[in-house]
């Protein structure tokens, strides 16, 4: 995905754009660019491959005008490599119109062929330049920037957010969106556009989300929204729940380090206000209704990556408490296999950003199939919540590091709350058990804080002696299995080494062949107090791999003496019920992924080839 910011107002636009792009850089960081109208009204652009700082340094050496109108872009490459010429903005044929774009124009080849036949010249390899030339051509015919963009978006297929400005229309920026995020920031004598609220939260906490297939025109003193057919649209305003300081490092070595430290707060804020007299009640589910929830005979959780692992933990809890069968499916596979859905199916989507394209399209499919759709999301005004029947926001605060940490524990917490609400509605959990689960969940933030306090230094030391390690395996059973998958994903994302998570019971069905002397294996050990008796089975797994030369790092409950003789290292976690242990056990794995990457000298916040969320299929 890409980061987009637009501005009109009395401030110096370049300063606003660069500040917004800095907060949006997590959305893409292989190139960046800006277009501004200078004090004389001339359009100036500058764009550079590399991280945002490359552009900032270039602007310091070769200053650009700093008028009151501008657009800015930070890119995650899709069409065309990360080069200066492929960076945005792209210009119209006469050089007077600048355009930036997030998403993919699927029919760009057909449109490009049409333009080439008319004699157009292209300077980049991107699909975006097609849109710039088309809007420039339409503006030459109409003389109206909004109408020009409206005429062009009717012809575009795919997912896109477009922002345009023109030298002949100072004080005007026009944006359009389809299946890609765009939010308005409302200021005093100034207005903003952004791919999310981080673009302008430094200046205002008043925001308006743009709906599907809508166009917005901002001026210093007005905001007008129409649909692609030209009809006026009333948009709903909301207040941003955090301020600009929440998206700053605040003295931490990385955003990831800061966000791991905020995991207790993320869990606590997600619980806050959602329990009454010791029981869970989610008012957010009212649009679906208790009668429909009581009638649900199946739940499908759809998500990608880390969110899918959160969904797997949700499955265990919801099935145990609410006694409803739950499937967890990868969003990008879900709709392509013609799944069976009905009005008795509840589809729960999970997306930190609320803009994950695979999940959005799966949500649209579920809605069209007549299912009830509930989203779990961390971002106000995002597309997926607006496309769903109901939403449970996680309130984790902005997550800037690409590798998700606090969003994961918040998502699991939200799913547990949903599970307890469903259990209450369906009468499948007695009140004492419900209260006990709420008490356990309420104790999690303090227990995560204890894990952070006790284990951080030890894990950092482990990471430093493992900088040459090329492969790490993770084992877990029951709720430990998704934790193993999450731990492996973090190492892939951050340390660029082979890492795999396995269900420990699968060990003798093939994976044990990977064990050789020195192989590092993390094992998530269930509580010895667990009545399911999985603990001795996992200890047996540890003995099997240790006998074959593995170096075992166990994450185990404090006081678990049975593990000590067989593990090379034990990272203790506080006592918790079996469903709540994953919220504690995952924290050392988040820390380890970060520490190993840092020890190897890698960029913890912006790992190669990745962006914060994927807004193209």
UniProtKB/TrEMBL annotation:
- Leader sequence residues: none
Annotated Glutamine amidotransferase type-2 domain residues? 2-221
Q: Does the record bear Endoplasmic reticulum in its keywords?
A: no
**Which Gene3D superfamilies does the entry link to?**
Glucose-6-phosphate isomerase like protein, domain 1, Glutamine Phosphoribosylpyrophosphate, subunit 1, domain 1
Region Disordered, as annotated, extends over 70-90
Report keywords, A-Z: Aminotransferase, Cytoplasm, Glutamine amidotransferase, Repeat, Transferase
* Catalytically driven reaction(s): D-fructose 6-phosphate + L-glutamine = D-glucosamine 6-phosphate + L-glutamate
Its localization reads: Cytoplasm
Pfam families recorded: GATase_6, SIS
Q: Which PANTHER family match?
A: GLUCOSAMINE--FRUCTOSE-6-PHOSPHATE AMINOTRANSFERASE, ISOMERIZING, GLUTAMINE--FRUCTOSE-6-PHOSPHATE TRANSAMINASE (ISOMERIZING)
Q: How does it assemble?
A: Homodimer.
Listed HAMAP family: GlmS
Protein name (database record): Glutamine--fructose-6-phosphate aminotransferase [isomerizing]
Instruction: Tell me what organism the protein belongs to.
Output: Antiquaquibacter soli
Chain's gene name: glmS
